[in-house]
């Protein structure tokens, strides 16, 4: 079986994920409710093999999605930048759809894909500061004081921490997805509670 090839990602031959997906009917009520609400995605069915931990993780995801410090459009740009830097075709496939539903222009999505000169892509001041921080953090594992100060000045303390938690969530998730070789869902999509 060939994984769905995405631009910039090599096509891989995958027979199946390296860990079987959990049957949603066998999960705890709390995990089943989360998956029903957020989408019956391969990633959730994989992670729910550790059902007790998955419940806590799902609560954390809900808290981040429901927080209002990062606008949905900015959140999707951040997630996509992380996905490209972590080479996660799965996350790209899920979140490019969400970005398009939020009407993020294709020129911005293209810039997030390549990185290039983000300053020439047409991002607003907040988007540009945030994407520069995400790129610097994931490429160097550190953030210069000037980069961090630029984000903090436009977001404030609470939203800056939310941003860092989004980066943490999706950079770690991308590594899990890549290691377990989770197949891209044919049609199921993540359902946040906002406009995406």
TrEMBL record:
Recorded hits in InterPro entries, A to Z, give: AhpD-like (IPR029032), CMD-like (IPR003779)
Q: What is this protein called?
A: Carboxymuconolactone decarboxylase-like domain-containing protein
Q: Please give the organism.
A: Nocardia terpenica
Q: Which GO terms describe its molecular function?
A: peroxiredoxin activity
Q: Which domain of life is it from?
A: Bacteria
Per the UniProt record, one Pfam family is CMD
Domain Carboxymuconolactone decarboxylase-like residues, every copy: 52-112
């Amino acid at each position: 079986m060939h994984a769905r090839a995405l631009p910039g990602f090599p096509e891989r031959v995958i027979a199946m994920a390296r860990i079987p997906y959990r049957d949603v009917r066998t999960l705890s009520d709390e995990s089943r409710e989360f998956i029903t609400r957020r989408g019956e995605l391969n990633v959730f069915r994989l992670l729910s093999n550790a059902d007790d931990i998955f419940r806590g993780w799902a609560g954390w995801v809900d808290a981040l999605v429901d927080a209002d410090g990062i606008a949905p459009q900015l959140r999707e740009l951040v997630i996509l930048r992380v996905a490209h830097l972590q080479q996660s075709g799965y996350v790209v496939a899920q979140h490019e759809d969400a970005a398009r539903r939020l009407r993020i222009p294709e020129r911005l999505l293209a810039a997030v894909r390549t990185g290039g000169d983000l300053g020439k892509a047409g991002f607003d001041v907040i988007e540009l500061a945030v994407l520069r921080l995400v790129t610097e953090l994931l490429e160097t594992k550190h953030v210069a004081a000037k980069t961090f100060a630029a984000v903090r000045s436009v977001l404030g303390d609470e939203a800056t921490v939310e941003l860092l938690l989004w980066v943490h969530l999706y950079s770690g998730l991308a590594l899990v997805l890549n290691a377990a070789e989770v197949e891209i869902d044919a049609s199921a999509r993540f359902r946040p509670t906002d406009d995406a």
